[in-house]
Amino acid sequence: MKNRWIKLIGFFTIVTMLTGCDPLLVLDPKGPQAEVQAKDIMLSIGIMSFIVLIVFVILAYMLFKYRASKQSPDYKPPYIEGSTLVEVICVGIPVLIVIYLSVVSVDSNYKVESTPEKYEHEEPLIIYAATSNWKWHFSYPEENIETVNYLYIPVERPIEFKLYSYGPITSFWIPQLGGQKYAMADMLNTLHLAADYPGEYMGRNANFNGKGFTENTFNVTAVHQDEYDEWVNDVKDTAETLTEEKFDTLLEPGHVGQSTFNGTHLMFLPPPVHVGEEVEAAISEDDESQQNKN
Predict the structure, then answer these.
(1) DSSP states of 81-121 as a string?
(2) 211, 143 in Cβ contact below 8 A?
(3) Closest to 146 measured CA to CA, from 138, 134, 158, 135
(4) What H or E segment, with its residue span, contains residue 13?
(5) Does residue 209 lie in a domain region?
(6) pLDDT score for 47
(7) Segment holding 53, helix H or strand E
(8) Residue 200 domain boundaries
(9) Is 178 part of a structural domain of the chain?
(10) Is 254 helix (H, G, I), strand (E, B) or coil?
(11) What is d(CA 200, CA 178) in angstroms, rounded to the nearest whole number?
(12) How many Cβ atoms sit within 10 Å of the Cβ of residue 143?
């Protein structure tokens, strides 16, 4: 009796505590990319739940219909070689489900890997997101400012992140705005995101990269365009200039708080380029040298 009361108290304690939990961030989208992914997650959960329900209903039916107590003691089951219909159902339905989910996944991948459709006619804000142990460096080349461990972005405007790393592989992830993408050394990855609503969002590294992994996070503030412009002007008026010596200090392993600078490290430490850009540059140099020879 005592153990039963302990179990009941434990159960109600867990239920009570869970009622205070925040909703899963990936299921609370605030941007078009995250909305596509949330719909796919709910679709997958719905299909899997339906399959599990059907399986349990069939299991209960079979256990009840063919229970041993229902048969006479001398009952012998008939010899059955097989059923083509049952085999087609058992194999065909899973194949159809996999095909359907594959089509949905491919279509979703194309959507999240490109500029959101609702903002495709707007000029994207380009932000270079570089990571080092264990911090984030965000460069705004258009505004010529840089932030550490926090982002300020305008709502209803596409954001084009250029991801790379000054250390181990890191994963850039803002759950309420979209999926994660890797930032790697000597390689530039592009991630398209957008925020539909103003608010404060959590961003973090989703890939283990050492002892400082748990605090490898950043804050995201999404505001209207006029508020964003005010923030940019305030930074230009009050922030200190980012020097090469200061940036070298920031690259050293360790945790730091949030900071803001005039200028970006892109001026003295350029980011890596795409392979295609390298090829184009090499071709241009060959053409120029050939013209000089002629």
Answers:
(1) ---HHHHHHHHHHHHHHHHHHHHHHHHHHHHHTS--GGGTT
(2) no
(3) 138
(4) helix 2-18
(5) yes
(6) 94
(7) helix 32-65
(8) 120-262
(9) yes
(10) coil
(11) 15
(12) 19
| pTM assigned to the model | 0.81
> Does any domain span residue 218?
yes
Cα–Cα–Cα angle for 278, 281, 282, nearest 5°? 85
Contact call for residues 218 and 55 (beta carbons, < 8 A): no
Q: Residue 291's pLDDT is what?
A: 52
Question: Amino acid identity of 153?
Answer: I
8 A C-beta contact, residue 201 and residue 183? no
CATH code at position 223:
2.60.40.420
Amino acid present at 59: L
CA distances to 28, 60, 78, 112, 118 from 123, in Å: 26, 58, 72, 17, 12
Look at residue 201 and tell me if it is in a domain: yes
The single-letter code of the amino acid at 215 is E
* The pLDDT of residue 274: 61
The pLDDT averaged over each successive group of 10 residues in the chain (294 residues) is: 63 55 80 95 94 94 82 77 85 94 94 92 95 95 96 96 95 95 94 96 93 92 97 95 95 94 94 59 47 51
Rounded to whole angstroms, the Cα distance separating 174 from 182 reads 12
Domain count, the chain: 1
**How many of the other CB atoms lie within 10 Å of CB of 153?**
22
